[in-house]
TrEMBL record:
Residue ranges constituting the TonB-dependent receptor-like beta-barrel domain according to the UniProt record: 366-770
SUPFAM superfamilies assigned to the protein according to its UniProt record, in alphabetical order: Carboxypeptidase regulatory domain-like (SSF49464), Porins (SSF56935)
Domain TonB-dependent receptor plug: 121-228
Predominant localisation class: membrane
Organism: Pedobacter westerhofensis
This protein's name: TonB-linked outer membrane protein, SusC/RagA family
Family per similarity comment: Belongs to the TonB-dependent receptor family.
Membrane topology reported for the UniProt record: Multi-pass membrane protein
GO biological process entries: siderophore transmembrane transport
Length: 1001
């Protein structure tokens, strides 16, 4: 027993002494970490001991000190943006290391988000475009996706009012895909489908992945038909960092429409009895323009922590003016992300909170058009200094008065919350639960005072001042569970994903309005003090309104990724999804997808015979996606107000069926095929991809005529119709020059799209073979100018075909029989297909230069092969425009074909005479920066930069900037309003100058 006790005590003593013995053999390594470009110290670089979880980071001077055990062999040095280095320990105690800046080459490990997970770019087998956050150009835009414009082949981004800080862009991927459902892609923000793109600061974006192929999008089922854009924001790291980015921007009106000056008006209009001289000399366009419009934005980011617990925090402030008298936007936003991993590494928790507040003053886009048409001899103010009452021209109002006195604004509050918990059950098995909420509350306010000249001149005693408030609330709650399992068997690699998704959507709206307030100073803050109350015998139906609707979405999904020796890759997925929007007989659907890839460059015969091919991968994929982006309750029998019924002297509200029931209402289905090639040549100096796609959209949603009875209404909302898009996309990236001090990289993105509308009908519902769209407004009755017809492309202009101008100044057109007559003698039956407003080609080219501390970026962008209807020329560009209205200078320019149309008999008749080529090439963005690393204790580096946007446009279009005309949707090539009809409303294009400062602390 004694002997056993001595043995135990000896063992305990041995294990107590052992750590001291090991520690006595450890040593301390010191040194400095610098960058290869300028040998400046790198602060915050990580140094870890290979095979050990411990590590340190460098201080502000790039210095480090680390204690290593005797068993350690190597140290690894890493820093964001630099290539990592693993170095053997020296014989001594000093080790200085130089890190080289990482290159964006294909052999670099680039992580691509593929939906519910990520893959190495080399493992991807479908059409996905990856954009790094540092590749986003500096653009002072209201929406972060504007910086993506032109960088993704097949993605069309347009904004018809860039100078309005409250405008939003329209996005369309691989052509128009629907008649009555949504056309925009699904946004996934940090893994949450349906993310709020407005609540993202561009500086916070880590990467953007665009899922274009159906096989990639099918994992999102009924929301994947229009493509998926996955946005990943920055997360915390163990490297402590503080970053500031601030800029000021100035927007100047460019490519503006030019109307007659006062002197030109006197010469060309007054002397020809087409106008009167009221004595003033007013530049109405200048009077309603705020140029330059000033904006500023500031962003502060903090990140740091440890390998186990880290954070990322960002705050931003933006104050932006529009180029009109009223538009303005002020916003405050923040994003906080915290990540924590338990000591045993089993659990990882993440929490992200992103609030944002916006205060807006809305632009009146009609004011510029009003200014274009007003007689320039009319004064802004009368003899008493008050705004002049104007009742001549196209629009009887004073646009300066409207811009300064009529108010329209909003308060918008947004909040995104996302929390997840990941359990690493085994080394190759994990499970993640994510809960999130996306909420938006928007309050709109409108007011017009009683002092408006139109009210005072009319001596109105009722419906004088007016105020309105409108409250909208959107809320989306999500719960998602995913499980991931991986298995490697020799050269066989498997990755299995399974999951469940639940989303609940809710919308609420309330509005109230009134007239005749005792004081204009109340604005919209005392609606109860108004006396009008909607009118009509005390019934205030138009004074108040409210609604609420909701929907639910449930899905089960799975995906298997397999590759053999990183050479043969196969991916298959299936989503089983149900939506409360669908009819009772068709609540659920299945969305399968499969893709495959062959990395030929990994074959021995390629490596031996064609060593200049660094990467060559063939891909093909097929997937079925859906579109359920339409209003709630469309499958149900809804009741609504149907007037009033008198009974015993009392008026009773009558309710009746307001819609037809459709138990078979379902999602629009899209069958997608994609074939592509990814390649890298000459040691990755040139890389890119080529894709061919064909997408057939079936069961398009629309309203179809049905008999009365048995149906209570004459139309039913149902699935009918087929459309097809096909095209080719090309992306090229090349390192043209690369040496120690100078580098030049070029990138090209090219897309060609062909569209065809196949059918309006099916076996159950029969529709007409065409639909006339694009109705033009008055004056006159121009009618519609576009037609959607079976067998034709979307965007077909359908008007009279012009045959020139006769000696009387009348427009001549061809009749269907080929004869030529004045346009006023032709009929609608003589209309023909005369052109298309859908661009066939969209292309861009980026040139990136770096010389020592300087960087220069030149970005060109264009669209080609389409027509635009010149709305300003049609209404304001001819000498025959109605009397006392101003016109464009082109109306009296002998070089302009529109100056020939002097006969008022054909003034309001639309024809292809007003169609012009919309093709353009734009110097879209030039940015120049200078970066200086600093060796101070408090500041690591400073970068100053300047940028110019929309610097010049090469085009033959004479109606302003062709990029301001919408080419997405069902009426491309036509200036339209929110209802999709033609409009004279006009918001000038702007040239933007940006001056900015970035600092890293």
């Amino acid at each position: 027993m004694y002997r056993k006790l001595l043995l135990h005590l000896g063992a305990i003593a041995f294990f107590m002494i052992l750590p001291f013995a090991v520690f006595s053999q450890s040593r301390t390594i010191t040194g400095t970490v610098t960058g290869s470009a300028d040998r400046s110290p790198i602060a915050g670089a990580s140094i870890t001991i290979n095979g050990s979880p411990g590590g340190v980071v460098t201080d502000a001077g790039g210095r480090y000190r680390i204690t290593v055990p005797a068993t350690a062999k190597q140290l690894t040095f890493t820093f964001l943006g630099f290539s990592p280095r693993t170095i053997d320990l020296p014989a001594g105690n000093e080790l200085n290391v130089t890190l080289s800046q990482a290159d964006n080459e294909l052999n670099e490990v680039v992580v691509v988000s593929v939906g519910y997970g990520s893959l190495d770019r080399r493992e991807v087998s479908s059409a996905i475009t990856h954009i790094s956050g540092k590749d986003l150009l500096p653009v002072s835009a209201n929406n972060p996706l504007m910086s993506l414009q032109g960088k993704v082949a097949g993605l069309s981004i347009t904004n018809t009012a860039n100078g309005d800080p409250n405008s939003s862009p329209s996005l369309q991927l691989r052509g128009v895909s629907s008649r009555n459902a949504g056309l925009g892609p699904l946004y996934v923000v940090n893994g949450v489908p349906g993310g709020n793109i407005d609540n993202i600061n561009q500086n916070d974006i880590e990467s953007i992945d665009v899922l274009k192929g159906g096989a990639a999008s099918a994992i999102y089922g009924t929301r994947g038909s229009n493509g998926v854009i996955i946005i990943t924001t920055k997360k915390g790291t163990s490297q402590s960092r503080m970053f500031y980015d601030g800029y000021a921007s100035f927007d100047y009106v460019t490519n503006r429409l030019e109307n007659l000056s006062a002197q030109d008006f006197l010469t060309n209009r007054v002397q020809n009895n087409k106008g009167q001289d009221y004595g003033a000399r007013t530049d109405w366009m200048d009077a309603v323009t705020n140029s330059p419009a000033f904006s500023q934005k500031h962003t502060l980011q903090l990140s740091g922590g440890s390998a186990k617990t880290n954070y990322f925090a960002s705050a931003d402030y933006r104050n932006a003016e529009g180029i009109d008298l009223r538009a303005h936007k002020k916003e405050y936003g923040a994003r906080i992300s915290i990540n924590h991993t338990t000591d045993d590494g089993i659990f990882t928790g993440t929490l992200t909170v992103a609030p944002r507040y916006m205060n807006t003053s809305n632009a009146d886009q009609g004011n510029f058009n009003n200014a274009l048409t007003l007689n320039p001899t009319y004064p802004i103010y009368d003899n008493q200094g008050k705004y002049n009452y104007i009742n001549t021209g196209f629009f009887s109002n004073n646009p300066v008065e409207n811009g300064k006195l009529i108010k329209s604004g909003g308060d918008i509050k947004e909040m995104d919350i996302n929390a997840s918990l990941k359990a690493n059950i085994l080394k190759n098995l994990s499970s993640t639960v994510t809960i999130s909420e996306i909420s938006r509350s928007a309050r709109g306010m409108d007011f017009s005072p009683s002092t408006l000249s139109t009210i005072v001149h009319a001596n109105k005693t009722t419906q004088t001042n007016f105020a309105k408030q409108n409250q909208e609330e959107n809320d989306q709650k999500n719960i998602e569970w995913t499980g991931n399992y991986s298995l490697d068997v020799n050269k066989h690699h498997f990755k299995l994903l399974g999951g469940y998704s639940f989303s609940a959507y809710n919308y609420k709206q309330f509005s109230a309005q009134n007239y005749d307030f005792p004081f204009d100073t109340y604005l919209w803050n005392n609606l109860g003090s108004g006396l009008y109350n909607g009118g009509a015998a005390g019934q205030g139906q138009s004074a108040v309104g409210s609604t609420q609707n909701s929907s639910r979405l449930i899905a089960f999904f799975g995906r298997l990724n397999y590759d053999f020796n990183n050479r043969y890759i196969v991916t298959a997925s299936l989503r089983h999804e149900g939506s409360s929007k669908f009819g009772i007989n068709d609540k659920w659907g299945d969305f399968p997808a499969v893709s495959a890839a062959w990395r030929i460059s990994e074959e021995a015969f390629m490596k031996e015979n064609l060593p200049w091919i660094s990467e060559l991968k063939l891909r093909a994929d097929y997937g079925v996606t859906g579109n359920q982006d339409f209003d709630n309750y469309r499958s149900l029998l809804l009741y609504g107000g149907a007037g009033y019924f008198p009974f015993n002297g009392v008026q009773y509200q009558v309710y009746g069926p307001a819609s037809n029931i459709n138990p078979d209402l379902s999602w629009e289905k899209s069958a997608n095929f994609n074939a592509g090639v990814d390649f890298a040549l000459f040691n990755n100096r040139l890389n890119g991809s080529v894709d061919y796609y064909i997408r057939t959209n079936k069961d398009l949603l629309g309203d179809y005529n049905v008999p009365l009875p048995p149906n209570p209404q004459s139309q039913t909302f149902t699935n009918v119709g087929t459309m097809r898009n096909s095209g080719v996309e090309l992306t090229l990236n090349g390192t043209v020059i690369k040496n120690k001090d100078f580098s030049y990289n070029a990138a090209v993105a090219f897309s060609f799209n062909e569209n065809k509308f196949i059918s309006f009908s099916n076996s159950l519902f029969q529709g007409a073979i065409f639909q006339d769209v694009g109705s033009l407004p008055g004056p006159g009755s121009p009618g519609t100018i576009q037609r959607i017809q079976e067998g034709h492309r979307i965007g077909e202009f359908y008007t009279l075909r012009s045959a020139g101008v006769d000696e009387t100044g009348a427009l001549l057109v061809y009749r269907k029989d080929g004869s030529v007559v004045p346009a006023n003698q032709a009929s609608n039956d003589d209309k023909q297909f005369v052109g298309n407003g859908l661009p066939r080609v969209i292309a861009s080219m980026n040139h990136s230069f770096q010389y020592k501390h300087f960087d220069l970026n030149i970005f060109l962008r264009g669209a080609f092969g389409f027509k635009i209807f010149n709305t300003p020329a049609f209404y304001l560009g001819t000498p025959s425009v109605q009397a006392d209205a101003n016109v464009l200078k082109s109306a009296f320019d002998s070089k302009s074909k529109y100056s020939k149309l002097t006969n008022s008999a054909t003034t309001s008749i639309a024809s292809d005479y007003f169609l012009e080529s919309g093709s353009f090439l734009k110097i879209d963005n030039i940015s120049l920066g200078y970066t200086q690393a600093l060796k101070t204790r408090y500041l690591k580096s400073v970068r100053i930069y300047t940028a110019g946007r929309n610097l010049h446009t090469f085009t033959k279009y004479t109606g302003g900037d062709p990029d301001q005309i919408q080419v997405n949707g069902l009426r491309p090539g036509l200036r339209t309003n929110r209802d999709g009809n033609g409009t004279l409303d006009y918001y000038p294009s702007t040239l933007q100058l940006i001056f900015g400062l970035q600092a890293t602390f």
